[in-house]
Amino acid sequence: MNLALIAMILALLIPMYEAWQDENIWQKMLAFSSVATKTSIMILVVSVLRDDWMLGVTGVIILSVGNAGLMLLAQVLKRMNQL
To answer: What is the spatial distance between Cα 72 and Cα 75, in angstroms, rounded to a whole number?
Structure first.
């Protein structure tokens, strides 16, 4: 279990490193979206292993709603740069 979580955390750092190198706002938003998705998957794995359904519900909410808010923020930033 610990090895799988460590591998998931290492996979979580890959998009952050790529976004750190690039100045494009869309690349950064995509990296944050990827981090949100991977974090919610990690929460779901932990909730299944612990048999804790409240954590599972939280992971599902983050997975379904978290990326939508991030993409909305990206659209706002895009519109502000066009003005």
So the answer is: 5
